[in-house]
């Protein structure tokens, strides 16, 4: 990660400014030629802008994955943490949250986690967004939690189409994605955050039935 971070930083320095210039030039061209472009020419400018943005997001994803993180852990209610994550998920423009029923199966008052709040929000949000995207026509999203003397176990279950068994072994591998335009860093970043907390993450999935992610976060 240290070597990747160093390389990514150098690449970012060399690539960010040209990418910004390309996007700005495309916007200026579109504005100055407004009304004079045929549909194909307008589409070409859209592609320049869109692909420049995709490259920028990929670069930011690599930088985020390679960045060294200092945790600031504290004890917090699982309910408050999940409410923040669910609110962010519902506001995300990339998912269709209507028709998704959320079921919470844990003691709202007694179940806590010990974690860095911002890092854990990022990890859980990634998992929740994946679950929502797996249920475009609606479904059930279950959150199960249990705290004991060793730590807290959280399960996030969706009723989507499931993940093929041959893809499960590489699910947390960096730069491998089954999503069109995906960087393959989302679940790798989730695993990194859980590992930094000295926790564990696993997944079970059945085609046509859904997917369950299980997280364990230990107490200090």
**SSE string:** HHEHEEHEEHHEE
* Count of helical stretches: 6
Unreliably modeled segments: none
The helix-and-strand class reads alpha+beta
Describe the protein:
The longest helix is centred in the first third of the chain and has 31 residues, at 2-32. The protein has helices at 2-32, 39-66, 78-91, 117-133, 165-168, 186-196; strands spanning 73-77, 100-105, 112-116, 139-147, 151-158, 200-206, 210-218. A five-stranded mixed beta sheet has the order 2-4-5-7-6, covered by helices on one side. A two-stranded antiparallel sheet has the order 1-3. The two termini are 25 Å apart. Helix 1 packs antiparallel against helix 2 (39-66). The radius of gyration is 20 Å and the shape is globular. The protein has 220 residues and is of the alpha+beta class. The chain contains six helices and seven strands; from the N terminus they run ααβαββαββααββ.
């Amino acid at each position: 990660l240290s070597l990747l971070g160093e390389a990514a930083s150098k690449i970012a320095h060399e690539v960010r400014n040209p990418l910004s210039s390309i996007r700005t030039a495309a916007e200026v061209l579109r504005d100055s030629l407004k009304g004079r472009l045929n549909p194909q020419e307008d589409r070409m400018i859209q592609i320049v802008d869109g692909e420049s943005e995709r490259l920028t997001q990929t670069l930011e994803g690599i930088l985020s994955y390679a960045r060294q993180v200092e945790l600031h852990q504290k004890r917090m209610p699982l309910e408050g943490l999940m409410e923040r994550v669910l609110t962010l998920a519902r506001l995300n423009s990339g998912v269709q949250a209507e028709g998704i029923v959320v079921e919470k199966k844990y003691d709202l008052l007694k179940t806590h986690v010990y974690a860095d709040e911002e890092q854990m929000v990022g990890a859980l949000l990634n998992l929740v967004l994946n679950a929502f995207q797996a249920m475009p026509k609606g479904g059930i999203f279950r959150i199960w939690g249990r705290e004991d003397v060793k730590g807290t176990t959280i399960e996030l279950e969706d009723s989507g189409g499931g993940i093929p068994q041959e893809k499960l072994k590489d699910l947390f591998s960096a730069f491998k994605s089954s999503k069109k335009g995906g960087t393959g860093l989302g679940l790798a970043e989730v695993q990194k955050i859980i590992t930094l907390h000295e926790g564990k993450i696993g997944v079970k999935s059945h085609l046509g039935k859904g997917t369950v992610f299980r997280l364990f976060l230990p107490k200090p």
